[in-house]
């Protein structure tokens, strides 16, 4: 029904106490481009990937009681092996092996596995705030 109404994914938002650090991570790792952001009463950075996917990074409200990410970036639970059944965003990459090598060169802990279909490769890791990420190839 939603597809018939023209619905499509526009953006994903992430809040952070350091949106500049988080923006730099997504720019360096995935090739996002920073685009002009509207002015709000709090700091935001908007990033664009390709022609139509946006990531909105929002300065974390210091009064909020919600956790910063699904895992604390320093939590012992922040093991990428937990992500196949946990919250994550997945990106497709054209050269999986090269992409994984670049993550490892950046010192990012990666959990790799082959998809049960035997054809698709998957890798799971965290951004600096503990948000789960996956790449497939």
Write structural notes for this entry:
The chain has two helices and eight strands. The mean pLDDT is 84. It has two domains: 53 residues, 2,3-Dihydroxybiphenyl 1,2-Dioxygenase, domain 1 (Roll), CATH 3.10.180; 67 residues, Roll (2,3-Dihydroxybiphenyl 1,2-Dioxygenase, domain 1). It has 137 residues and is an alpha/beta fold. This is VOC domain-containing protein. It comes from Olea europaea subsp. europaea.
Please count the helical segments.
Answer: 2
Mean of the pLDDT scores?
A: 84
Helix content: 10-25%
Q: Total domains, how many?
A: 2
Instruction: Record the strand order, biggest sheet.
Output: 1-4-3-2
Descriptive keywords:
137 residues, alpha/beta, 2,3-Dihydroxybiphenyl 1,2-Dioxygenase, domain 1, 2 domains, four-stranded mixed beta sheet, 30% strand, globular, Glyas_Fos-R_dOase_dom
Short account of what is shown:
Pfam families: Glyoxalase. The protein contains two helices and eight strands; from the N terminus they run βαββββαβββ. The chain is of the alpha/beta class and 137 residues long.
SSE blueprint:
Layout: E1 11-16, H1 19-30, E2 33-35, E3 44-49, E4 53-59, E5 89-92, H2 96-105, E6 111-114, E7 121-126, E8 132-136
């Amino acid at each position: 029904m939603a597809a018939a109404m023209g619905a499509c994914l526009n953006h994903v938002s992430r809040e952070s106490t350091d949106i500049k650090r988080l923006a730099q991570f997504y720019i360096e790792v995935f090739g996002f481009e920073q685009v002009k952001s509207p002015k709000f009463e709090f700091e935001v950075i908007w990033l664009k990937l390709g022609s139509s996917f946006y990531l909105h990074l929002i300065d974390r409200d210091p009064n909020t009681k919600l956790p910063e990410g699904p895992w604390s970036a320093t939590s012992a639970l922040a093991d990428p092996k937990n992500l196949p059944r946990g919250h994550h965003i997945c990106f497709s990459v054209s050269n999986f092996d090269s992409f994984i090598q670049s993550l490892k060169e950046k010192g990012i802990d990666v959990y790799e596995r082959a998809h049960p279909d035997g054809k698709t490769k998957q890798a799971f890791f965290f951004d600096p705030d503990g948000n789960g990420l996956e790449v497939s190839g």
